Amino acid sequence: MIQESEENHYKLDKIDDHEPDPYVVPPYSTMHVQDDIAAAKHDVSEHDLDDMNDFARRTALLECEHLKSNIPKLEEFIPSEYFPNILLVNDTNDLVSGTGCRFKTTRYAREEKPSRLLIEYERVWPVFDRDVQSNLGVPSEAKTVDVNRLAPKATQLRVARLHLSASSLIGVGHHSTVYRGIAVKIAGSSSSARGMLEKEANIYNKLPKHLMEDWNGFNLVTPHKYPVPADAVVPKFYGYHVPKDPYIGSCHLDRSPILLVEECGVPIRSYGMNPDEWCCLTHVLRLHYANFIQNFLYERNILIQPGPLSHPPSERSFDRPSFRIIDFGRAERLED
């Protein structure tokens, strides 16, 4: 174990000689998960639950829900050529208005009906070369890519569908609510809540890709004295979308933008964590070294799930947990 107290078994230069070049460790492919679901689908036994603390138990049950629904979690990056320009949202419970979502969930879960009208959303971030070239599906204020770098070949418009349901609630914050469907974050109805969601999306858009990826080997994140796995720090970013028509009928409400990120488990509970799991706090240091400050760090904003994500879901364990920092509505980038 590398320590700054000079108690290393090897000298640092010898360790460097044995260390392989860094490379990305990709998550287990979603395409393979679909093939594995029949074999991996099972209920968590009472014995397994007894051996878990509270947040581990909730995460295990969440994984089973995914398996039973035959919908694997998306844990990979979406290639730019397949990233949707347009998002057609089936909002069964009028969730995109951002009003009253804390209190509606149970009642709406029983009364849910398919929406007759798909709500059209346009992607603002991220922006790709093909968006400017095709001039499709991205609001004009987002079209800032250097046209001199564009490939000459045209790109077709990409359309995706998103089903929103109050029964898929993940969490509720002061200014927003999160639903499962990747992780779908919707702002409350106030202008401050909408502004915070836009700010969070802007931070995700600026976060370097390597902070969303797992890498081989370990990092020595000073002043922490021990090496920690070079895991991802934040969820993958799947886009920030705004409604093409923001107004809802004749009422004075408008539809919230939608932030899509990777779903990464449940909040930690510090009283049940062992010393190895406390290394998740080095994620905060890695954000700082990348010139980002989260500015609102609570237990609920650090998520845990079984790992490693390079293994099939049925082979993941809390012996190798995966952590992510979330909620960047108050975050700053020091270079801005």
Automatic annotation (TrEMBL):
SUPFAM superfamilies: Protein kinase-like (PK-like) (SSF56112). Residues 1-21 are annotated as: Disordered. It comes from the Eukaryota. InterPro entries: Kinase-like_dom_sf. This is Protein kinase domain-containing protein. It comes from Fibroporia radiculosa. The lineage of its organism: Eukaryota, Fungi, Dikarya, Basidiomycota, Agaricomycotina.
